[in-house]
Design a protein that fits this description.
Structural class: mainly beta
Shape: globular
Strand content: 25-35%
GO biological process, one term: hemolymph coagulation
Domain Peptidase S1: 19-255
Strand order of the largest sheet: 9-10-11-15-14-13
Distance between the termini: 26 Å
Number of strands: 15
Order of helices and strands: EEEEEEEEEEHEEEEEH
Helix content: under 10%
Largest sheet: 6 strands, antiparallel, barrel
Catalytic activity: Selective cleavage of 103-Arg-|-Ser-104 and 124-Ile-|-Ile-125 bonds in Limulus clotting factor B to form activated factor B. Cleavage of -Pro-Arg-|-Xaa- bonds in synthetic substrates
GO molecular function: serine-type endopeptidase activity
CATH class of the largest domain: Mainly Beta
Protein name: limulus clotting factor C
Length: 263
């Protein structure tokens, strides 16, 4: 795609100030949240996160074996039944799954979505920041946020409005001790475990983010919704693809893409 100068913009700035146990977000609170839709569908197949003018990030299990021509991605929407005129829709030009993605182990569960046209930042749509440092390797103790239109209970119906939930990040070793039938690798990050609060079916591919200490309030993406053991079950955290583990691959793919600055 030909390089085009972007208007000045900053990433990770939130708005007006499938989620279990979530609260309804304020409209356009999180400008980077996107839905990946089969064309013609009301509900998104998966979530996604805008990271540059040309790319969003989702989970590889959402894209593997699928034809990008069958999909579109939508930004700036809150209520799926009443999409505003300010919403932005792009056809998906390409799925770029992580080269080490292992569907059996659900390892490196990440895919970059390239759009057919640039998504310029507006007052309603802008990208999130990628981690500014890889020194915070575990994020344990941080409160993270995840959003989605997915099921509000295990095997339940999806939500028409965007929901959010705040989840504590836990150590991978603790996560492995709990999810004994799963293999938690260093390429994953775990969050949650409180009863009734979790990501769920339909939230896959959405982002998990934090507000770094001393950042001035901008948000940084630390995970991609990958898998879990049920939804919102007490003591059972959700598992996310760890952004710092795949960041070098992301940076290589998006190197020529137009980006917003970190505040």
């Amino acid at each position: 795609m030909e390089a085009v100068a972007l208007p000045a913009c900053y990433c990770g700035i939130s708005g007006n100030t499938r989620i279990v146990g979530g609260t309804i977000t304020a409209e356009n609170d999180y400008h980077w949240v996107a839905g990946l839709f089969n064309k013609g569908n009301t509900y998104p197949n998966c979530g996604a996160t805008l990271i540059t003018a040309e790319f969003a990030l989702t989970a590889a299990h959402c894209t593997e074996g699928r034809n990008p021509a069958d999909f579109e991605i939508k930004f700036g929407i809150h209520d799926l039944a009443h999409q505003p005129a300010t919403a932005i829709t792009r056809d998906v030009k390409e799925f770029i799954d992580h080269p080490s993605y292992d569907s059996a182990a659900v390892n490196f569960d990440a895919s970059l979505l390239r759009f057919d046209a640039l998504v310029f930042s507006t007052t309603k749509v802008r990208p999130i920041c990628l981690p500014s440092t890889t020194n915070i390797l575990d994020y344990v103790g941080y409160s993270s946020t995840v959003t989605g239109w997915g099921a509000v209970q295990d095997n339940g119906f999806p939500s028409l409005v965007l929901l959010e939930v705040h989840l504590p990040v836990i150590a991978n070793s603790v996560c492995q001790d709990i999810l004994v039938n799963k293999t938690i690798t260093e390429n994953m990050i775990c969050a949650g475990g409180n009863v009734g609060q979790d990501s769920c079916q339909g939230d896959s591919g959405g982002g998990l983010w934090i507000t770094p200490i001393g950042s001035g309030g901008h948000k940084e993406l630390i995970g991609v919704v990958s898998f879990g053991d049920g939804c919102g079950v007490a003591g059972r955290p959700g598992v996310y693809t760890r952004i710092t583990a795949i960041q070098s691959w992301i940076q290589t793919v998006i190197a020529a893409s137009q980006k917003c600055s970190t505040p």
